């Protein structure tokens, strides 16, 4: 039985971050191109994609480019041209959600189904495999049993799963609150993150259940403890969220999961292998909690959990630092309780006030007072002129202080922090070149590629055989700044020979160049999957606005696959009344212990709790929560704001745009 390849898939905001992701152990990197990516503030030029691909391919790593927005009809040709440009630049796959792209003249590049394609069922996953997708990222809400059920029917495509980072509370591609309230479409790469706002929750009688809580905000995904379970369930690509994340975060989190996956590969060597080549060394110990995070959850992988929400704040609360001591008008003291714990100028401190709100202040100057005690002068810039430390809210002796920015950590990761190398075995042999004495150096890398260089040179006997042998091995192993590292050096010499260092170095450089060329020549593109013919039927014959059909080619795709009724995407502005703006597995009732299932069997409570709708209020915005208890899902219901409709009408007047509509425009 062949081993299954496991892929660590890291995000990149730009090519430089992507290069560091590869250096820190990523088997693949996903990144946005010039346009049509679902993070509109993270575009990259074709030249930068080519630069990143060239670096990644040296280690057999892959570059996947996001083209995962929904497209208007007038954008399809530009998207087609971009797809060809990315292919020619060396991109290994395109990540897409709009099925209209499959109707275009695309290059023979591999296609991956974006999270926005909303893959929750075996039927949907099998359909996407059969229409030509080679890899697909499953919905984050799935548990291990559901993943196994998909794996049972999807044998040819690679299953991908998010293992770390921010969680979108909605089922992927099923959130329209941003567009309804602000006109900014998450499906078009411009989500306003209404889910991170504070809401007051009221019941049907108007009673307040929760006041100004971020009840739609989730903790961050952390599957560190579940990688082996996920692999055994059928996941082959482990995806880190974060195309807006900074360099330090990508380095840190990628290195963390590289170490975990390497440990898994070592334990399960009979079953799994790495999907790219090389080994990494880090100059730091990865600590994912040092980066921005809202606390960790493994979400639904091991079943529904009650503590998945980050209801108090959507911000990074930080790591425990110490307790507050003496407070004056200009400074305060912190006891870290650990003599090795250093407070730095520029650190950011946080604490919870008496109302449960997160407060914070940056450090201007930190001075050690001896032992575990530090004097901190905070940076009060931003407060009213003349403000003192007493203006900071709810500071008191014994208060627990955390740190959400550690300048020493940031300085550490601002430096080169990893190197990635390929193992290579070197063999130096005596040969005859056209009847003349000479030497042959063979380099064989861990993938079996070879680079050979030959040198005509007399076989001069060495004066000190032992010293000469040691010198030859030492010189040959000096591979410097190349991508290679010597694993073994073998001397296949009939007799001890002397070879000048300059000649030996030239021979080694030539062999390295030959090996690099051999690796380039052996490089193969990922194969494009062939769709099943005749076209397979879509699992349903009716599509609502939830299917995100925004152009006529996407509508034609679904019609070709047996769909009879195809509604237009929400962004087409045909659903003007109250509709489900978000569908989520997260349940506010469950998280607030108001679910009828939780009351089952509880004397005096069972039968008194019903899944009645709740109301969310933020300023003038009001949303209704409705609960579908059979599939255990929550619908966030609302309508599009009038100013958003007016804004769209103005855009239609000034821009020549066309998009799919179920009904003719009024």
Describe the model.
The model has no long low-confidence stretch (mean pLDDT 95). The chain is of the alpha/beta class and 666 residues long. The strands form 6 sheets. It has an 8-stranded parallel β-barrel with strand order 1-2-3-4-5-6-7-11, surrounded by 5 helices. Strands 9-8-30-31-32-29 form a 6-stranded antiparallel β-sheet. A 6-stranded antiparallel barrel has the order 15-16-19-18-17-20. It is 24% helix and 27% strand. The radius of gyration is 29 Å and the shape is globular. Helix 1 (15-23) packs parallel to helix 2 and helix 4 runs parallel beside helix 5. The longest helix has 22 residues, at 501-522. Among the domains are: 4-167 and 218-277 and 284-290, Alpha-Beta Barrel (TIM Barrel), CATH 3.20.20; 315-414, Thrombin, subunit H; 423-522, Enolase-like, domain 1 (2-Layer Sandwich).
Question: Briefly, what is this?
Answer:
The protein is 24% helix and 27% strand. The chain starts with a strand and ends in a 12-residue tail after the last helix.
